[in-house]
Amino acid sequence: MNTAEIIQLENTLGAHNYKPLDVVLCKGAGVWVWDVEGKKYLDCLSAYSAVNQGHCHPKILAALIEQAQKLTLTSRAFRNDQLGLLYKELCELTNSHKMLPMNSGAEAVESAIKTVRKWGYEVKGVPEGQAEVIVCSENFHGRTLSIVSFSTDPKSRTGFGPFTPGFKVVPFGDSKALEEAITPNTVAFMVEPIQGEAGVIIPPAGYLKKARELCTQHNIILILDEIQTGLGRTGKLLAEEHEGIEADLTLVGKALSGGFYPVSAVLSNTEVMGVLQPGEHGSTFGGNPLGCAVARAAIKVLVEENMVENSAKMGAYFLGKLQKLNNPLIKEVRGRGLMIAVELSPEAGGARQYCYKLKDSGLLCKETHDHIIRIAPPLIITKDEVDWAAEKIAAVFAG
């Protein structure tokens, strides 16, 4: 089937809850993808950072095939030989005491909220039903009902109430507002180190460090949602490393499986994770042997092939080239590692049209918040490929 036929099928039979660019992809390798007509594109979105290791990485693929021929699912009613090894390898890599395996990023967020509430009641002594979690405006932590309950995006909330109580919203990057929002019933502060969906919004220097200090001072759990920023995207294994801090709970997903399989995890210290007892939380597929084998391979290649270091190097190079674009349509170029945003001026008339022009030039990226183009290629991108992409972007904005 050709592009038009497949799009027609989607429009007729699918729920209209996405607005993708009209390209139908059927193959991927490294930083490149191909559509059903055979056209080749440089992927500058990486499935929202789920394919940091590149499309169809051969070593992750081999691990998937090998494990799929042995054992795919046991549920957590029984133990499997892959989960313990993932516990060991991921905890050692991230300096974590405990790990709770789940599937999607949203499940990791929900798991963290449940865990810190229980910790608040059993350890901190918050009155039952009064636990508060502080979050930030313009956040994006997923799309479940509890998560959209504390979203400030009207599209995420409108028509989905009534909402889950127990959340306070403060401005992102504002330490004073965070401090003023804390009460004796506050159990956690959950924040993205860099807000991805909001348009790669980087907080002021020292913000996360101050948040860490406030959480320690007031006996509050610091939750860092590193589902997009983690595993090398910002040029560090975890974005918290840029400020030299450690969260109490760290959420990872997306690139944890290199794009092959849904795998996420809540990484925690023993005190917080220790409140969960048998039967209180779980997932049939969470920690399954297939997902664990894939995740083990995904983090192994991330480290062994120096993808984090390449992200830092190529990210700085890419950012530098884009910041040199002297065009009145571009308001700002910002980023950290290979997490970059090109924010357009109002005169540009919206970002989506430029995403289509870039697509026609062989480069795929996506708009966010109407006027921002997000650029986040796989972490394996080379200098020549960055040069090629930068030339395409420059040409599109030159008209």
Automatic annotation (TrEMBL):
SUPFAM superfamilies: PLP-dependent transferases. GO terms for molecular function: identical protein binding; ornithine aminotransferase activity; pyridoxal phosphate binding. One of its GO terms (cellular component) is cytoplasm. It is found in: Cytoplasm. CDD domains: OAT_like. Pathway: Amino-acid biosynthesis; L-proline biosynthesis; L-glutamate 5-semialdehyde from L-ornithine: step 1/1. One of its GO terms (biological process) is L-proline biosynthetic process. It catalyses: a 2-oxocarboxylate + L-ornithine = L-glutamate 5-semialdehyde + an L-alpha-amino acid. The modification N6-(pyridoxal phosphate)lysine is found at residue 254. It comes from the Bacteria. The keyword Amino-acid biosynthesis applies. Its EC number is 2.6.1.13. Keywords: Amino-acid biosynthesis, Aminotransferase, Cytoplasm, Proline biosynthesis, Pyridoxal phosphate, Transferase. PROSITE patterns: AA_TRANSFER_CLASS_3 (PS00600). Transmembrane segments: none annotated. It holds the Pfam family Aminotran_3. Its cofactor is pyridoxal 5'-phosphate. The keyword Transferase applies. PANTHER family: AMINOTRANSFERASE CLASS III, ORNITHINE AMINOTRANSFERASE, MITOCHONDRIAL. Belongs to the class-III pyridoxal-phosphate-dependent aminotransferase family. OAT subfamily. Catalyzes the interconversion of ornithine to glutamate semialdehyde. NCBIfam families: Orn_aminotrans. This is Ornithine aminotransferase. The gene is rocD.
